[in-house]
Amino acid sequence: MEKIEIPLAQMTLAQKLDLMEMLWADLSKQSLDSPDWHESLLAEREAALLDGLCTFSDWEEAKQRIRQNVSCK
Q1: Cβ distance 63 to 70 under 8 Å?
Q2: For residues 68 and 44, what is the distance between their CA atoms, to the nearest angstrom?
Q3: What is d(CA 62, CA 68) in angstroms, rounded to the nearest whole number?
Q4: Separation in Å, CA 60 to CA 47, 57, 65, 72
Q5: Structural domain boundaries of the chain?
Q6: pLDDT tens digit string along 55-67?
Q7: Under 8 Å between Cβ of 61 and 55
Q8: Model pTM?
Q9: Are 4 and 19 in contact (CB under 8 A)?
């Protein structure tokens, strides 16, 4: 298959977002199977959650924590 060159540096943000949406719409029509390791990883994480070894955060709280940890100094 021939590689397609797309002039991303010359595209506007709106054009890039349109392209991304078109690609996602096309990809989402296909059946994509997750790799086998996804199932085992999810099972491990669910077990850790049920055993009280980890917790999860509300998305807004997580974003705030990320911003605090990644802020430029």
Answers
A1: no
A2: 29
A3: 10
A4: 25, 8, 9, 20
A5: 36-70
A6: 888 999 999 999 9
A7: no
A8: 0.46
A9: no
